[in-house]
């Protein structure tokens, strides 16, 4: 198998957390993603494992919305607790607010591209969009982020 699945655990967790904004639920969804992934060994050997992993995660996140009402918890303080430099914290918070201001589809593209370091091709497989559409959305998201940060006078 060309994909080291264990190397993808943190990326899938980040993806799930982005979708549900709840640490415990994201951990549960990540675990369930890998359980389902490994239970479908016939697909793993003939398909694209990374795309399949993200597809499972996405479907589980959607299902979690259907099953329960999820309370959003802002855990940004936990995410940056190890950072001591005030400038880094300020930058992180400004970027997080700017990304949160984007539409959800663009937030997802930013997460996949820059946080999870996926290629445009991998994102197109995961989202079902063409590579050109993904490329356009990445550029659109970056343009909107620049605009938001300029409005905040963060330049």
Descriptive notes:
- The longest helix has 21 residues.
- This protein is globular.
- 72% of the residues lie in helices and 0% in strands.
- The protein has 2 domains: 73 residues, Rna Polymerase Sigma Factor, Chain: A, CATH 1.10.1740; 73 residues, Orthogonal Bundle (Arc Repressor Mutant, subunit A), CATH 1.10.10.10.
- Helix 1 packs across helix 2, helix 2 crosses helix 4 and helix 4 packs across helix 8.
- The protein is built from 9 helices and no strands.
- About 10% of the residues have low confidence.
- With 155 residues, the protein is an all-alpha fold.
What's the number of extended β-strand segments? 0
Largest sheet: none
Task: Give the name of the CATH architecture of the largest domain.
Answer: Orthogonal Bundle
CATH class of the largest domain: Mainly Alpha
Please name the CATH topology of the largest domain: Rna Polymerase Sigma Factor, Chain: A
Query: What's the rounded overall pLDDT mean?
Result: 78
Query: What series of H and E elements makes up the topology?
Result: HHHHHHHHH
The residue fraction in helices comes out at over 70%
């Amino acid at each position: 198998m060309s994909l080291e699945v264990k190397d993808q655990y943190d990326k899938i967790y980040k993806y799930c957390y982005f979708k549900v904004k709840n640490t415990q639920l994201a951990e549960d969804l990540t675990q369930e993603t890998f359980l389902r992934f490994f239970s479908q060994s016939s697909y793993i050997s003939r398909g694209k494992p990374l795309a399949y992993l993200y597809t499972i995660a996405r479907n589980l996140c959607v299902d979690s919305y259907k099953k329960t009402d999820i309370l959003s918890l802002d855990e940004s303080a936990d995410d940056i607790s190890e950072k001591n430099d005030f400038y880094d914290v300020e930058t992180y918070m400004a970027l997080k607010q700017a990304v949160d201001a984007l539409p959800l589809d663009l937030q997802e593209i930013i997460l996949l591209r820059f946080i999870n370091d996926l290629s445009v091709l991998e994102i197109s497989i995961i989202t079902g969009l063409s590579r050109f559409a993904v490329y356009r959305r990445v550029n659109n998201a970056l343009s909107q982020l620049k605009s938001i940060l300029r409005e905040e006078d963060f330049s």
